[in-house]
Amino acid sequence: MDKLKLAIVGCGRISDCYRDVFQKLSDSVSVVYAVDKDIEKAKNFAADFSCRYTDHYEDILEEELDVIHLCLPHYLHKPYSVLALEHGKHVLTEKPMAMSLQEADEMLEAEKRSGKLLGCIFQTRYNESVSILKRRLEEGIYGKLLTASSILTWNRPDSYYAGSDWKGTWEYEGGGTIIDQAIHSIDRVRYIVASDVEWVEASIFNRTHPKLFVEDTAEAQIQFQNGVQYHLFATNTNGFDTPIQIEFCGEKGRCGLIQDMGYSYLGEKYEEFREVKKSVTVGKDYWGSTHIMQLEDFYRAVREGGKPLADGVEGRKTLELVKAIYLSAKYRKRIYLPFTDEKLTKEEMGKILFY
C-alpha cells in the first residue's frame, strides 16, 4: 500500500494533535510539507518528519499531494479549501467549515467539480461513548427520544484573545463561544439525534469580555424535525473548564455524556462506559483523543471511495445551526431552517450584546 502524501497548513496549537497522529500512522502516511506564515513554526513541525516547509501556501499547490490538512483561522477555511480542491487535493479542514453558508456552498461545489473529498474536523463524533449512545437510541432502548441538552461552562480569559489577531472577532472568527467552543457539543447532539433542524430560538450575551464584540454566553432552544427539543447553554465566563454535559431523555430512560464518559439510566439500572483512549496523548483535554479516528476514516474514504462520517455536507449542517443561533439572537425571533444567511458585523452584533 502506497503511503498517502500529506501537507499540514497551519502549525499552531492544534497541530500538536496532528503531529501525534501522523507519527502513529507513519506506516500508511507521509508528511511532505508543513506550512505556516510563521516560518519558524513550519520549520519546527517539519523537523519531526524531515519534510519540506514554507510560509507560502501557493508553494504546495502544484506538489504531488493526496491530502491537505487545514488548521487555520476560520476565515481562511473557504479560500484555502477551494484552492486545494481545484488543484486536485483532498481537503480536511478544522471546524467550522466556513464563515457563512454561502462559503460552505462554494466549497461543496468545488468538491463536486474536483472529484476529491472535503471533510470537516468534528473529532468528538468518533468517541466510543458517542457511538454507544447513538446505537442505543437508534435501537429504541430508552423509548421515543423527547429532549436533548448540552451544557458547556468553560473559561476563556482576556489573555486567550490578546495573543490573536482573529479570535474573538465577527470578521475573522465568525463569533465567540458558540462557533469556537460549543460547536462540538452542537455537532454531537445533531449527529446523535439524526434529524434536520426545524427552528431555533436563541439569545447571546457578552458578560465579562467588554473589549470583545462577540458572545461569551449563549442559550438556545432548538426544535428538530423529528420532534426532539434541544436546549443549549454555553459560556466561557466560568472560573475553569468543567466537563461538558450532554443528555438525552426518552420515554423509558435517559443517557448522556460527561466529557467522554457515557452514562445510562434505565429504570433502576445505572451504568457507565468510559472512552478508551486510542491515540492522542498531547494537547488540551477538551480536544479529546479521537483525532486519529477521524483522520483514519478520512484516509479510508480517500483510498476506498465513499464518504467520511464528517464530510462537507455534515459540516455545512452544523454550521447552519450555528448561524441560525446567531440570527435568532440578532432579530430576537424564531428562525426556521433553511434560511438566507447574512454577514454579521461588529457594529450590529455589538448593539445586541451590550444593550
From TrEMBL:
Pfam families: GFO_IDH_MocA, GFO_IDH_MocA_C3. It comes from the Bacteria. GO terms for molecular function: nucleotide binding. Residues 133-254 form the GFO/IDH/MocA-like oxidoreductase domain. Residues 5-119 form the Gfo/Idh/MocA-like oxidoreductase N-terminal domain. PANTHER family: D-GLUCOSIDE 3-DEHYDROGENASE (PTHR43249:SF1), UDP-N-ACETYL-2-AMINO-2-DEOXY-D-GLUCURONATE OXIDASE (PTHR43249). This is Gfo/Idh/MocA-like oxidoreductase N-terminal domain-containing protein. It comes from Oribacterium asaccharolyticum ACB7.
